[in-house]
Design goal:
Order of helices and strands: EEEEEHEEEHEEEEEE
Strand content: over 45%
Number of strands: 14
Distance between the termini: 35 Å
Number of helices: 2
Structural class: mainly beta
Shape: globular
Largest sheet: 14 strands, antiparallel
Radius of gyration: 22 Å
Length: 300
Amino acid sequence: MLYGDLGFTSAPFSTTYPFSKELSKIKYKNNYRTILGLGVSYKWFALRLGIPLPGYTRPVSKFGETSPFNIGFDFTFKKVYCDVDLRYFKGYAIQDAYLWNDTLDVTFPNDIRPTTQVSSFSMNVWYFNHKDFKMSALKGKTGHYNQRVHTWYLKNTFNVFGVTNDKNQIVPDFISDPTKAQTQAAFYSAADIGTVPGYAYVDRIRNWQFAIMGGLGGVIQAKFYGGAVPTRGFLGLAPRYDIRLLGGYSVPNYFVFLLTDFDNKSIRFGDLVYRQHFYNIKIVAGKRFPVKSKNKKSDR
């Protein structure tokens, strides 16, 4: 099966800290670009490459330019579904930085930071309790469902992620706390492993299929900050949740689906919390090609 998708991927993040009585949260926004995805799926294996198209959704004068990159693959074995994903974004803007930065104003309110980079590498292994629940069919790639299926699942996850601003502070010097090194760091990063239990439901009405998945769990995390200050590392726990909504029209030869998924990651260093959000919204269309069956000789 060959397929393509069109949509956008975003990766905003924030830092939360009692900077002042009026300010406790800084929001970092990337500039949206439409992403064209091209992929191939055969039986148990699928591979996709995302390519950004020219142009931006937000004004470049206010949000700067963002360079995104995404590649991933997945495969299925019986009740187990595995996916591997690499995401990278370069170029952010701190929203409404004019509130504390006198060099900005309401005409150009954001602090554009072209060197700020976010990356995430994840490997997930999903176990579905129902033998008829298949992620490839859920996404419409290798087929579709003919009846309702629902099941609980366990998602075992491994992630390496973080943000860096070269050798410059992630939190602007205007509002950083000189007594807290984490507010003056040039990078935050973490590696974590854990489990997210959840529930999945899929149904089909005529040629329309729809599904929802949701889970809540936690991870054990090794976390670090440094760069502009001496590097320090810690061990801790962090929450995780997953939400996926998808559905569309599917017949044996082709399908058109709307897919959404939301992924969150976080790191806590005392009073400072770094929260990273990844979300995708895209329309996927694919053409299925029949596989010639191999007739086995009968022993009779």
